[in-house]
Amino acid sequence: MNRTVMVVDDSSSFRTVVKLALQKSGYDVIEATDGRDALAKLDGRKINLVVCDINMPQMDGITFVREMKGLAAHKFTPVIMLTTETQASKKEEARAAGAKGWLTKPFQTAQLIDAVNKTCV
After folding, report:
1. Given a cut of 90, is residue 103 above it in pLDDT?
2. DSSP state letters, 51-93
3. Band of pLDDT at residue 2, cut at 50, 70 and 90
4. Model's pTM, two decimal places?
């Protein structure tokens, strides 16, 4: 059975790069353009992992993670933040919201897949 990863990023080209890397590694991918769109797509399908940017319109990644973790069905869904942010305070805020991992853009595909394989439930 394939595992499903939700990729949340406001850059369509970035989502495509991440999606292709994940699909090549055998994952199904759901794309969302920002936190609000991602919440709308939490429609009962099993999501094994979320890869999420921080800086997005409508709803940023940290707010999305907090909201998602408040839903019983996704309380334990792991999240990897994938962002240009490098500040320790942002990392701490993301961790407090429930994020399990942190990767910085630009990223190495192998690094992303390794993190996803380790974190995906």
Report:
1. yes
2. EE-S--SSS-HHHHHHHHHTSGGGTT--EEEEES---HHHHHH
3. confident
4. 0.96
3-state DSSP call for residue 105?
coil
Q: For residue 88, count CB atoms less than 10 angstroms from its CB and return exposed for 0-12, middle for 13-18, buried for 19 or more.
A: exposed
Other beta carbons less than 10 A from residue 67's beta carbon: 17
Angle at 96 between CA 16 and CA 7, to 5 degrees: 10
Within a 10 A sphere around the Cβ of 29, how many other Cβ atoms? 18
Q: What is the pLDDT of residue 1?
A: 62
Dist. CA 24–CA 94, nearest whole Å: 28
Q: How far apart are CA 51 and CA 31, in angstroms?
A: 10
In angstroms, rounded to a whole number, what is the distance separating the alpha carbons of residues 50 and 38? 10
Of the candidates 8, 78, 2, the residue with the CA atom closest to the CA atom of residue 38: 8
Q: Which of 72, 1, 25 is nearest to 51 (CA)?
A: 25
Residue 58 CA to residue 118 CA, distance in Å, equals: 30
